[in-house]
Amino acid sequence: MSERAYLAVSINNRTKVVLKVQNYELEAGTWKGVGDFPPVDVPPGGNGPAAFHCSAKEGTASGIEGYVIYQMGEDPSTTIKITWWLLWGGSNDIKIEPSDPDISVSMKGWVGHGASESPVLTVHDERG
Predict the structure, then answer these.
(1) Rounded Cα distance, 93 and 122, in Å
(2) Is 65 in contact with 85 (CB distance < 8 Å)?
(3) Can you give the pLDDT at residue 72?
(4) What does 74-122 look like in DSSP terms, one character per residue?
(5) What is the pLDDT of residue 38?
(6) Are 39 and 51 in contact (CB under 8 A)?
(7) For position 108, what pLDDT does the model report?
(8) HEC string for 42-84
(9) Distances in Å between the alpha carbon of 85 and those of 26, 59, 107, 114?
(10) Which of 22, 75, 91, 107 is such that its CA lies 20 to 30 A from the CA of 98?
């Protein structure tokens, strides 16, 4: 049995508001594998609660591609979009796009290749 690609994302929310799931889509892969789940809201504080897990479909050599948009609290115009591509047998990529330049997101644990990625994102809000 071959190794199955998976992505497990944790988020440290260092803001004062809940990061609410606004929208998400998985273009390749599944939220339904063992241990997988779609994106969940991330409360402020704490250390890296699991935000979402997804994997390649069982029995395939496919990758994982998708995105999640989190909104900051009750403000639907202030968002963080996380887009990823885990290509089976190729390189992996992730793009993190805050809608406001004063929202920063740092990342640890992204390797950039291989069948699995488990990044930890840390979100800060520097707006006054």
Answers:
(1) 18
(2) yes
(3) 97
(4) TEEEEEEEEEEEE-TTSBEEEEEEESSTTEEEEEE---SBSSEE--EEE
(5) 93
(6) yes
(7) 97
(8) ECCECCCCEEEEEECCCCCCCCEEEEEEEEECCEEEEEEEEEE
(9) 10, 19, 16, 12
(10) 91
Q: Quote the tokens at residue 116.
A: 């699995």
Amino acid letter at 83? T
Minimal CA–CA distance to 2: which of 116, 118, 119?
116
- Let me know: does 63 contact 15? Beta carbons within 8 Å: no
**Cα–Cα distance, 38 to 72 (Å, whole number):** 18
Give me the residues of the chain with pLDDT under 70, please: 1-3, 46, 58-61
What local confidence, expressed as pLDDT, does residue 61 receive? 65
Burial 55-75 (b: 16+ CB within 10 A, else e): bbeeeeebbbbbbbbbbbeee
Tokens, residue 5: 């690609």
**CA dihedral defined by 37, 41, 43, 46, rounded to 10 degrees?**
20
Side chain identity at 22, as an amino acid letter?
Q
Is pTM, for the whole model, over 0.90?
yes
20 contacts: CB under 8 Å, gap ≥ 6: 41, 70, 71, 72, 73
